[in-house]
């Protein structure tokens, strides 16, 4: 039989073994908890990192789209400059060829006169009709007669543009060419306005012309001219591309309130030495009401040119098949028309929509951002959808892992 000491020793060893087992279980549960947390951090850290990288890539995509839009605008400016340069080159070639023809005709006339003088000495004098002789002489001096066209070379639809680099700052950001959009009644809310003192408006003409007159037309007014409309202005011809050298065409043009005539024309003096110009500057000295802001509605530059410029052609948007569709959308769905319909002035004017929907032409844009806005909205919508799907996947995975963690923790306790 065992004595009391041996029994106490035996019981004591059993009581010591129970805490060791409990400690091992708790250590195992803690290790599982740590592993689960590390797994969760590793998994969701990768997913969150991928989400951040995806978001950065989408932002880079949007930035690249904006840069491509700016590159397209730069290409358009370069193409306009190239067109102006080609026109100038053609004009110089034509002038050179005409001078060469004139020189060759003079030489031929001299030879003919020498032969006639020799023949007159050998032959008897002959009576020649003076009128016939003069007519033949005119025919010899002018063997080619080119047609001359009288046009408004400052028309946007012919290709004229506002040179914003050499013009005063305006409220019409990106829409300065509206001041060249030749229409019977320019709208009041689409004027070229500037807060500068004696603002300058520089215009690249559609082609080289011999200027004959300039005109200014304000939006429709009754009795008195609105405050801010030009009152006195000068017009200069730019002799170089940068308008560093200029020559006055006409000075002290006054837009009068008497007579209530919207378009007032100012003929250029016939003794002007300017032969051919491609760029002009309007310098506004005073405005009606002597207010700070000067607002210009519509300017025209008339002149003679041997070439008739072609009007720009624009295709209708596939979503709006006819001008009647545009008119219906304008009146029935003004919000959709304003936000999602393509309203470029060139499209409306070149397709004859102004007679069908004149209000559409009054509110048209030179640079319509509708398509760009649609693309940007589509990209942002795609980004939001992708982000929502990613967050939903992360949430579902988190819930699943949480359940697994709770299950493993309960099993560890048991």
From TrEMBL:
One of its GO terms (molecular function) is protein-membrane adaptor activity. Residues 88-122 form a coiled coil. Residues 132-306 form the SUN domain. Keywords: Coiled coil, Membrane, Transmembrane, Transmembrane helix. Pfam families: Sad1_UNC. Signal peptide: none annotated. InterPro entries: SUN1-5, SUN_dom. The chain crosses the membrane at residues 43-62, 375-400. GO terms for cellular component: meiotic nuclear membrane microtubule tethering complex. It is found in: Membrane. PANTHER family: SAD1/UNC-84-LIKE PROTEIN-RELATED, SUN DOMAIN-CONTAINING PROTEIN 1. This is SUN domain-containing protein. It comes from Caenorhabditis tropicalis. The lineage of its organism: Eukaryota, Metazoa, Ecdysozoa, Nematoda, Chromadorea.
